């Protein structure tokens, strides 16, 4: 069967020097492979192999080309030949053992189909194939839980000194549902001379999902000498749903000994579904020294389906108003809005009054809009009409327009009439037109009739044209015929041209016909007068 992502745990992954062109090219190809974009990856590999035949990653490219053939369900004999040619070309490649393993499994499939010659080819390749054949056989026996197979696997681990083979044995041990296999993995994780094999054993312990592996993983996370082992142990523990991990992750997150481990611990805490998790995250939020750890704790709390009991409205208010970290202030503000408690709006209004930064003010206005309701409408309308400056007033208009279930025609029309700043008034005009709401467009036409300033009338006809709505056509036609200012009438005609509907085109034709008729009457009067 083709390799899956889980099968790649024991395989080397690409490591490139980003300073060289071929390294950058190969890393791009490798990303396509990891994203399983087989067609694009195959084409990119062919281009790479042709362009960089001497590259240090030429063997990587050739191996992955075979892998893609396998994933893309090419004939098994074709895939077998690809791996065979790869080993012949690159016998010392770090991928050679993986290619042999794939050949063994493919040969086994072909043998079952009446083609035993493929297994003979594999056995004839070299002496290491015997161990690989043994592993393939043990993997097959693993599925039926054969005790002898497990003991043979453990014995083979002790007899072999070959790193890749031992790595593969660790992977297979992790798939045995057997206490003896678990104990062997724990032993390897604690005593093997190779840090990399200890790390792989730790990862395999996590894959077992067996709670009996947790003490060894917790010990490794806290005390392993090598940082990669501690990282792997923390990631492995994140896969368990055990209540005892709440206190463990909290302690690791607050230890501050290593920022990376603290990040992994708070992420693991956030992924848990266990009693006391939220309280532990709140404690990390309050007590952690590093800003990133506090931010991660708050984001984990924000991502929960239900508001965390320990994260009170008052605490969020304090964070939003006073926290030195701007990201925490912003997140707390949005959480206040999402909670929709009775005090949410009053807290947001208080935060808005205290905010000095325009970006923060805009975020708070949007948060108020998300709360919704008449109180939020009134609060935003007040800022839109008479805010502290033109920028915040304009942003309040945009937020006001986002509130659902309000009468946009009335509310935005009132802003147009009463706004202190021209920027807010223009924003309200645009929002009335952009909504394509017949009631709002009708209200905009009424404002046009009421407006005394010709400059503002011109802005209003421009907004009506921008609506691209047939509801605006009669309003613009009337302005084109009756407005006392030539530039407003001209703007109304241009606005009709922007609408581009049959109704708007007919209105323009009527205007043109009216001008022709008027010109004809003038000529007739002149002729009569002359006679």
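Q: What amino acid sequence fits the structure above?
A:
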């Amino acid at each position: 069967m083709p390799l899956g992502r889980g099968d790649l745990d024991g395989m080397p992954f690409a490591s490139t020097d980003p300073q060289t062109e071929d390294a950058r090219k190969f890393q791009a190809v490798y990303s396509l492979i990891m994203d399983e974009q087989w067609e694009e990856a195959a084409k990119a590999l062919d281009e790479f192999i042709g362009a960089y035949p001497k590259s240090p990653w030429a063997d990587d490219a050739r191996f992955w080309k075979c892998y893609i053939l396998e994933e893309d369900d090419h004939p098994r004999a074709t895939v077998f030949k690809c791996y065979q040619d790869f080993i012949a070309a690159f016998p010392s490649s770090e991928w050679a053992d993986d290619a042999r393993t794939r050949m063994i499994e493919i040969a086994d499939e072909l043998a079952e189909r009446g083609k035993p010659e493929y297994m003979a080819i594999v056995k004839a390749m070299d002496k290491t194939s015997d161990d690989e054949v043994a592993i393939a056989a043990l993997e097959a026996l693993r599925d039926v839980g054969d005790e002898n197979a497990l003991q043979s696997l453990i014995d083979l681990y002790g007899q072999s000194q070959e790193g890749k083979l031992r790595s593969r044995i660790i992977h297979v041990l992790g798939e045995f549902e057997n206490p003896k296999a678990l104990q062997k993995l724990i032993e390897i994780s604690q005593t093997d001379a190779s840090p990399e094999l200890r790390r792989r054993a730790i990862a395999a312990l996590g894959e077992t999902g067996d709670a009996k592996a947790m003490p060894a993983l917790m010990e490794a996370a806290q005390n392993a000498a090598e940082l990669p082992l501690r990282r792997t142990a923390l990631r492995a523990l994140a896969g368990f749903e055990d209540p005892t991990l709440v206190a463990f992750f909290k302690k690791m997150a607050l230890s501050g000994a290593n920022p990376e481990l603290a990040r992994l611990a708070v992420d693991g805490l956030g992924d848990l579904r266990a009693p006391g998790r939220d309280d532990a995250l709140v404690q990390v939020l309050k007590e952690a020294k590093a800003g990133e750890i506090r931010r991660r704790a708050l984001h984990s709390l924000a991502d929960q389906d239900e508001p965390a009991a320990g994260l009170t409205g008052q605490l969020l208010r304090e964070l939003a108003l006073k926290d030195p970290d701007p990201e925490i202030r912003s997140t707390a503000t949005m959480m206040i809005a999402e909670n929709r408690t009775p005090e949410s709006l009053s807290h947001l209004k208080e935060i808005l009054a205290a905010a000095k930064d325009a970006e923060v003010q805009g975020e708070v206005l949007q948060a108020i809009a998300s709360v919704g309701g008449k109180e939020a409408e009134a609060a935003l309308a007040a800022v839109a009409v008479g805010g502290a400056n033109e920028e915040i007033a304009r942003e309040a208009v945009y937020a006001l327009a986002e509130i659902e279930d309000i009468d946009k025609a009335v509310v935005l029309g009132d802003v147009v009439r009463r706004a202190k700043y021209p920027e807010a008034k223009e924003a309200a005009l645009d929002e009335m037109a952009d909504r394509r709401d017949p009631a709002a467009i009708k209200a905009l036409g009424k404002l046009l009739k009421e407006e005394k300033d010709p400059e503002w009338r011109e802005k209003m006809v421009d907004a009506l044209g921008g609506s691209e709505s047939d509801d605006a056509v009669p309003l613009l036609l009337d302005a084109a015929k009756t407005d006392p200012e030539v530039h407003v009438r001209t703007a109304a005609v241009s606005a009709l041209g922007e609408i581009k509907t049959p109704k708007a085109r007919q209105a323009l034709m009527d205007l043109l016909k009216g001008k022709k008729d008027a010109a004809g009457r003038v000529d007739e009067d002149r002729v009569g007068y002359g006679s």
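Q: And what stands out in the fold?
A: Confidence is low (pLDDT under 50) at residues 1-17, 520-531.
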